[in-house]
Amino acid sequence: MLSSLVHCRSTLQYFAEYGHRQHEELIQREEQIKGFHDRLMENSKSILSSQESFESKQASMFVVLDRIFSLQNALLLESRMIKAFFVYSILIFVIFMLTSTKQTYNIRPFLYIELFATFFMEVLIIRLTSDSIEHQTWIINMARLFFLVAASVQLLHAICTYKDYEILNHQMLLTLMNSVNSMQKQKELSWDLDTDYEDWSQWIDADLPDDVNCLDDPDYILPEEVAENSITASKSYNLRSRHLYQ
């Protein structure tokens, strides 16, 4: 009986010591877990701070990317504007060369007006619309194609319906001059046929008086110097003779 009590006591003491050791181990484990938890909290706080710093850096990176994209869009817009200006400058020169002839000179202002309207519409499409670049490019190409077709039709119409009024006026003037010359020739021919021939030699002989020599001119006045020389000379000369027309 005593031995059983001793055995029970030793057993209880063993369990008590075992429970005490387990309790101490549990307390140590709790302290370890608490330390782990504290370290975990510190690590999570550091992770959160790192995440916050990463988010701020990411936000600043997004701002920089937005600025880069806006700068890229501005550069793309300016490059498209420069390209459009270059293309329309070439078109202005081409229109000037095509309308340098008489047949197409009159439609030059209309072509320039249409070209400037197309350029203005293209600038509005590039700057004001928010469509994609592909859609804007399609609209711009259609506008340019429409202008080229309209300009070609106007040039062909001007060439086919051109009338050189200078040449027409020259031809009309030549025709009128030929008509006038032919009428004048017919009039002169009829006048020559209707006019009788007149003997001018008889009129000259009849006009002179009878007492005047036919070789002398009664209306002729001899100069004084010539008269004096003719008096002093041994022989007088007839200074002016009149030829008879037979």
TrEMBL record:
Membrane-spanning segments: 81-98, 110-130, 142-162
Q: Which InterPro entries match?
A: GEX1/Brambleberry (IPR040346)
Q: Does the keyword Transmembrane helix apply?
A: yes
- Superkingdom is Eukaryota
* Keywords recorded for this protein, A-Z: Membrane, Transmembrane, Transmembrane helix
Question: Is Transmembrane helix given among the entry's keywords?
Answer: yes
Q: Write down the PANTHER family for this protein, in alphabetical order.
A: PROTEIN GAMETE EXPRESSED 1
Q: What is the protein name stated in its UniProt record?
A: Protein GAMETE EXPRESSED 1
Its source organism is: Mucuna pruriens (Velvet bean)
